[in-house]
Amino acid sequence: MADEKLDAMREALVARLLEDMDALGANWVRPWVSQAPQNPSTGTVYQGRNALILGFVIRSEGYDDPRFMTFRQAQKMGLKVAKGCHGWPVERWGEVFFHKGRTGRIPQPKSAAERERYRRDPEVVSKVLPIGHYTVFNGSDIVGLDPFCAPDTMADTEARRTLVESCPCELKILTTDSACYSPMFDRIEMPLAASFADEGTFLRCLLHEEVHATGAEGRLGRPGIVSGEGMGSESYAFEELVAELGSVFAASRLGIGLGDLAAADLQRDGAWENHGAYLKGWLQALPPEERPRSLMAAATQAGRAADWLWEHCFSKGEADEAA
Fold it and tell me: Tell me, what DSSP letter sits at residue 295?
């Protein structure tokens, strides 16, 4: 039943994204930026697939509370799930072990000692994969949970300083009409912030390019960046979707807003003007049964990119202040 519910939610999510791309064009990401979905029991900030799924739930249900937790987690905190409320299935991930060079899984470890033994075995490799599902409930349906208080959003000047000073590669802000990441030179080039419609739009473009930069060799090594294939290729379209979703996840984690691209921004270099239509066309070109899988795969890579930026770039300032 959980599989069927999750599949139905994924299909509904794809349909909503296609609607947004059709109605909003290149600005389709704007309504998806909100407080990052999080778990008040574990302190986890949901990322990747589950962040996208729960972001869809927040938007479709009109929730003001971005917190989600399981029935058992609520019980452990001395709380109750309200009767008759709706739960939402999300993916449970775990480490799965395989024999190197062979097909099929091996018996999975049943203890921490067995897991460590597998990890030390040179003939065994592991992958983190979805291994099941669990149901979570929104914080507004948890009786006894303190009301959600949204943290202060990052001021535009602070957000710009964070993204500029913590860029994962060389950054050049120039008198130019185009924003791009060059894998050959491992460099981002951006127009002057004053040339954008507003500060949020500048941040959106910069964050999009910084997500691209995480795909370089020596970082996450995504095929869409490493191969260098151009527009029209499947890997290029997939990478663009990763960059868009990654910018949403990273912005939510940082607590910054992403501005809408204005007409002048869209027409600056022609790259953004038909961006939403391009991604919509690529998704629609896939067989319907493959669209949810491709979207979830892009969300996984986008989550890894946002996590990489947070761990290697954006949280360094907090660590320096704490030290």
Answer: H
Give 32's strand partners. none
Please, what is the end-to-end C-alpha distance for the chain in angstroms? 49
Q: Which residues contact 18 (CB under 8 A, 6 or more apart)?
A: 280, 283, 284
What global pTM score does this model have? 0.86
Count the alpha carbons within 13 Å of 121 in the hemisphere toward its beta carbon: 16
Q: Of 202, 246, 244, which Cα lies nearest the Cα of 220?
A: 246
CA–CA dist 105, 103 (Å, integer): 7
Q: Give the Cα separation of 162 and 314 in Å (integer).
A: 7
Instruction: Compute the distance between CA of residue 243 and CA of residue 255 in angstroms, rounded to an integer.
Output: 18
Q: Is the pLDDT of residue 317 over 60?
A: no
Residue 35 and residue 66: Cα distance in Å, rounded? 6
| β-strand pairing of 180-182 with 187-191 | antiparallel
In one letter, which amino acid is 281? G
User: pLDDT band for position 230 (50/70/90)?
Assistant: low
Which two structure tokens, joined as six digits, stand for 281? 């066309």
Residue 183 has φ and ψ, to the nearest 5°, of: -60, -30
For residue 38, the one-letter residue type is: Q
Compute the distance between CA of residue 262 and CA of residue 197 in angstroms, rounded to an integer.
6
- Give the Cα separation of 46 and 67 in Å (integer): 10
